[in-house]
Design a protein that fits this description.
single chain; 112 residues; alpha+beta; GMP Synthetase, Chain A, domain 3; three-stranded mixed sheet
């Protein structure tokens, strides 16, 4: 049996990398403030919009729109003529507390 293996390599400005960076930064910000914080979030982007969604359990507050906009600026999306920039893009957050069923297993038994 023959198999074909393919992979994709993308750079920092690619939407996949930007979304990975956003989700990782949310985790980093929570853990910097709350060592026992738990984050399960995903990010997606399209022209002019970023969405961060998932479940977070923590004692601290992360200002998602500011975090997202700062990351977009750092990556270099600072020109509205390009169709996406940190100042005018929409940032939607859909974050809720971790479900009680998951919290029960993680709080008492650990994550793995």
């Amino acid at each position: 049996m023959r198999t074909f293996f393919a992979s994709e390599s993308v750079t920092e400005g690619h939407p996949d990398k930007m979304c990975d960076l956003i989700s990782d930064s949310v985790l980093d910000n929570v853990l910097a403030c709350d060592k026992k914080g738990r984050v399960a979030c995903e990010s997606l982007t399209t022209r002019g919009l970023v969405m961060v969604a998932g479940e977070i359990t923590t004692n601290c507050y992360v200002e998602m729109p500011r975090l997202v906009r700062n990351l977009i600026k750092d990556i270099g999306y600072d020109d509205p003529e390009m169709g996406f920039d940190y100042e005018s893009c929409g940032v939607i957050t859909a974050i809720q507390e971790q479900s009680p069923d998951i919290a029960l297993g993680v709080d008492t038994g650990g994550a793995g």
